[in-house]
Amino acid sequence: MDKRPDTWPDKPSGKRLAVVTGGTRGVGAGIARAFVEAGDEVVVCARRPPEVPVDGVEFVPLDLRDPPAVRAFFDALPRVDVLVNNAGGAPYRLLAETDAERHARVIELNLTAPLTASLAAYEQLKSARGSVVMIGSVSGTRPSPGTAAYGAAKAGLENLVRSMAVEWAPDVRVNTLVVGMVRTELSRLHYGDEDGIAAVSRTVPMGRLAEPLDVGRAAVFLASDAAAYITGAGLLVHGGGERPAFLDAATANKEKPNEQRAYKEKAYKEKADKEKADREKEGEGGEAG
């Protein structure tokens, strides 16, 4: 990085400074927007500038896979209160359809780069008693066919967070947001057209995909004083997760919703009637005594 932008203050303004890697689109832009809403100064870094800039956000070009450039970027900042390691992702690619070097680049972006950025920001975070939020994924907790290297990297990221939290406590808190499916401008690449997105949304207990701002506000929480005792944790942001596939495949317990409702109503009425009878019986016993 050639020089520090003139818009960065030389002295603290009373606001926190939050750095969001890969914060130019999708989930990253939602995170940046959430920190702006919270009243923070926000700097985002990525290889390419945002197509739609977020008001109140400073952009700096940076390749997070270039450690010297990453260190120079953080050295130029006046302080760092919050680091959100969001940059990452992977194309759909079955393991045997490409070579190990390409899979290794996915791991480099999704695991090594967050470690590089965290180490580069450590001294500033320590001085500020700041917070690191890693953006993880449910792909790191279950099989991830087509994005296996990505899933492996996200699993490693969660373990890294737990170790980092122990080593850096009490000065720096480190947590993970374990994110499920999010609706972004790239959703069509993963889920298809609007019909495909709607069908996928119906598989989520909450009935929809997350919005980038949902993830952003969860990140703001983990970086806030409200989470002052939370470190080494993983917060699930997945709308309730995924319905187990075997439940739909099984032939048992297939009552229709109205039959299930009638059964519950009958059980509730029987319980209420029994409780009423017990109370009346107790009342009779009291009068006899």
Structure description:
The chain is built from 9 helices and 7 strands. It has a 7-stranded parallel β-sheet, sandwiched between helices. Strand 4, helix 3 and strand 5 form a beta-alpha-beta unit. The N terminus is likely disordered.
Task: Write the topology of this structure.
Elements: E1 17-21, H1 26-37, E2 41-46, E3 57-61, H2 67-76, E4 82-85, H3 100-128, E5 131-137, H4 148-168, E6 173-179, H5 187-191, H6 194-201, H7 212-222, E7 234-237, H8 245-249, H9 257-288
Parallel strand pairs: 1-2, 1-4, 2-3, 4-5, 5-6, 6-7
Fraction in helix: 40-55%
| Uncertain stretches of 5 or more adjacent residues | 1-6, 8-12
Strand arrangement across the biggest beta sheet: 3-2-1-4-5-6-7
Q: Total strand count, please? A: 7
Percent strand: 5-15%
Quick tags:
289 residues; seven-stranded parallel beta sheet; alpha/beta; globular; 7 strands
Task: Summarize the structure in short.
The chain contains nine helices and seven strands, in the order E-H-E-E-H-E-H-E-H-E-H-H-H-E-H-H. The protein has 289 residues and is of the alpha/beta class.
